[in-house]
Design a protein that fits this description.
The complex is a heterodimer of chains A (366) and B (80). With 366 residues, chain A is α+β, with helices and mostly antiparallel strands. Chain A has helices at 10-26, 48-57, 131-142, 152-179, 185-188, 195-200, 207-215, 225-229, 252-256, 264-269, 302-313, 338-343, 355-365, and strands spanning 4-8, 34-40, 65-71, 74-79, 82-87, 112-115, 124-128, 146-150, 233-236, 239-242, 276-278, 282-284, 286-292, 318-324, 330-335. In chain A, a hairpin with a 3-residue loop joins strand 11 and strand 12. In chain A, helix 3 (131-142) packs across helix 11. Chain B has one domain (2-77): Lrp/AsnC effector binding domain/regulation of amino acid metabolism (RAM) domain (Alpha-Beta Plaits). Chain B contains two helices and four strands; from the N terminus they run βαββαβ. Chain B has a four-stranded antiparallel β-sheet, with helices on one face. Chain B is elongated, with a radius of gyration of 13 Å. Classes of the chains: A alpha+beta (366), B alpha+beta (80). At the A-B interface, helix 2 and helix 4 of A face strand 1, helix 2 and strand 4 of B.
Chain lengths: 366, 80
C-alpha cells in the first residue's frame, strides 16, 4: 500500500479531512494512507473561464502567459516578453462566490501550512501543526534541503492580520446572506462537537439537494469531496455532475461536502495539532520562515523542498497536487519524482478539484 | 451589497434550440452570449443569490432543456 502526500488550498484540505473522518466513521475506505497534508495560504481563487476572459480582453491569451503573480494589490503577468500589470481589484469580481465565504486563510487542518505572508521576500512562512509536519520539516532541514529562520512576532502579526481580514470579510458576507434567509451551513456547524452531529443534518439528502443547496447557491468551492465519495459523480468545469444514477437512499455526496456541514472543532480533535493557538491561524506548534537551499520554487521554494524530502525519504510515495497547464488551467497531477514536483512549483490562481484524483490514487495504491 | 453573476451552458433538446434561445432572451437577468454545438452560453445576473438560484432552477426545469451546466458563480461587490 502506497503512502500519499497532498498539497491543497484550505477548502481542499478541509474536504480531505472530512473525507478521512467520514471514512473512519462509516468504516469505508475513502482517502486513508494520506500521510502528509501541506496546506497553502489562500485568499480565494478565480473561476478559470473568467480569469481567461479577463486576460483575453486585455490582449493576452492564457497560453501566452509565461508567469503570473500577485504582488501586493497588483497582478503581474509576463507574456510574449512583455510585463503587464493590473490592479488586483479589477479581478476581484472573478473570485468564486464560495471563496468569498471561506473563513480559513492558512489551511488550519493541514500538517504544515505554507505561504509567503509574514516572511521576507524569497522566504516561505511555514506553520507547523502536527508531529508529521515537524518530522518532515526537521528531515528536510537535516537533509540540507531547507534553511530555516524565525519569523518573529512582526511576521506572525502580519500573517494574523491578513487571516483576520479574510475572515472578517467572509463573515460579513455570510451574515448578510443569513439575514436574507439563506443558509450557510459550513459556518453554522463550525462549533459542533462531533461529525455524527453534523451528519444528522445531512441525512436523506442526495445529489439533487447538493446541487440545489450548495452548487446553485454559490457555496461550492469545487474541492471535489462529493465526487471523491461517490463514483457516480464527476467534476466538470469545477462543478459536480451526476454521470450515472444517484444511488437510492444514499447521501454520501451530501455528507462528504464541507459546505453542507463543517464541524471544524471536531475535525481538529482528530488531528494531533499543537497546543499553541492564535485567532484565525488555528492550532500549531511553531511558525517559522524557510527557503530551499537549491532548486526552484516560489517564495523560497520551501513546499517543493518539503515534498522532495518526503518523496526521497519514503514518507510518501507520491504527491497529489495542482499545477497549471499551458493555458493556465489548473491540472491535478500525481508527482512521483523530484522533476515532476519542480515542474509544478508556483501558484495556480484558478480553482481546481483534486480530491477525486486523490481518491483514485488511494484506490490504485491498495 | 452582493451582485451575483453566473455563467452557464444550456443544452436544449435537439431541434428545440431556437425556442430555448428565444425563451432565454425573454428572461430578465439573462444575456445570451452565443450558441454552438455544445449548447447556448448565457450570463445570468441577479440582485441576490436567491434570485439567481431561482432563475437557474427555473431554466433547469424547462422541458426543452436537456442539461444546465453551471460554469461559474461569482459575486461582484457594489460596496466592499
Amino acid at each position: 500500500m502506497r503512502a500519499l502526500g497532498f498539497v491543497g488550498t484550505p477548502c481542499q484540505v478541509q474536504g480531505l479531512r472530512k473525507l478521512q473522518a467520514l471514512g473512519r466513521l462509516l468504516g469505508r475506505r475513502l482517502v486513508e494512507r494520506v500521510e502528509l497534508v501541506v496546506g497553502l495560504f489562500c485568499m480565494g481563487n478565480w473561476s478559470y473561464p473568467c480569469m481567461a476572459g479577463f486576460l483575453e480582453a486585455r490582449g493576452v491569451a492564457p497560453e501566452e502567459v509565461a508567469r503570473m503573480r500577485i504582488s501586493g494589490d497588483r497582478v503581474r503577468v509576463s507574456a510574449r516578453g512583455m510585463e503587464l500589470e493590473f490592479p488586483l481589484g479589477e479581478m476581484r469580481k472573478y473570485v468564486k462566490m464560495a471563496c468569498r465565504m471561506c473563513l480559513d486563510f492558512t489551511s488550519e487542518l493541514a500538517d504544515i501550512s505554507a505561504g509567503s505572508t509574514g516572511s521576507p521576500e524569497g522566504w516561505t512562512t511555514l506553520i507547523v501543526r502536527t508531529p508529521r509536519g515537524e518530522e518532515v520539516l526537521h528531515g528536510a532541514e537535516e537533509a540540507g534541503l531547507l534553511e530555516l529562520m524565525e519569523v518573529g512576532e512582526a511576521g506572525v502579526e502580519e500573517l494574523q492580520r491578513v487571516a483576520r481580514a479574510k475572515f472578517e470579510r467572509s463573515l460579513r458576507r455570510i451574515q448578510s446572506r443569513v439575514e436574507q434567509g439563506d443558509e450557510v451551513p459550513h459556518h453554522a456547524t463550525r462549533d459542533l462537537g462531533s461529525l455524527e452531529e453534523a451528519l444528522s443534518r445531512t441525512e436523506g439528502r442526495g445529489f439533487r439537494e447538493l446541487w440545489r443547496d450548495i452548487v446553485v447557491s454559490g457555496l461550492c468551492d469545487a474541492c471535489g469531496a462529493c465526487s471523491a465519495a461517490c463514483s457516480e459523480l464527476e467534476m466538470r468545469n469545477g462543478m459536480p455532475r451526476l454521470r450515472g444514477r444517484c444511488p437510492q437512499d444514499c447521501s454520501l455526496c451530501y455528507a462528504a461536502c464541507t459546505r453542507t456541514a463543517l464541524p471544524l472543532r471536531a475535525l481538529e480533535e482528530q488531528l494531533e495539532l499543537g497546543e499553541l493557538r492564535r485567532e484565525h491561524l488555528g492550532r500549531y506548534r511553531r511558525i517559522l520562515a524557510a527557503r530551499a537551499t537549491r532548486g526552484g520554487g516560489q517564495d523560497g521554494g520551501a513546499v517543493t523542498a518539503l515534498l522532495k524530502f518526503s518523496l526521497n525519504s519514503g514518507v510518501v510515495d507520491e504527491v497529489v497536487l495542482t499545477c497549471r497547464d499551458e493555458e493556465l488551467k489548473p491540472r491535478v497531477l500525481t508527482a512521483k519524482r523530484e522533476e515532476e514536483l519542480e515542474g509544478c512549483a508556483g501558484t495556480v490562481y484558478a480553482a481546481s478539484s483534486p480530491l477525486p484524483e486523490l481518491r483514485h490514487r488511494v484506490r490504485l495504491s491498495t | 451589497m452582493d451582485l451575483p453573476i453566473s455563467g452557464a451552458v444550456i443544452v436544449p433538446v435537439p431541434g428545440r434550440e431556437d425556442e430555448v434561445e428565444r425563451n432565454l432572451r425573454n428572461l430578465p437577468g439573462v444575456e445570451v452570449k452565443g450558441r454552438g454545438t455544445r449548447g447556448i452560453a448565457v450570463v445570468m445576473e441577479g440582485r441576490s443569490t436567491k434570485e439567481l438560484k431561482k432563475l437557474s432552477e427555473e431554466i433547469e426545469k424547462w422541458e426543452d432543456v436537456v442539461d444546465f451546466q453551471l460554469v461559474y458563480l461569482n459575486v461582484e461587490d457594489e460596496v466592499e
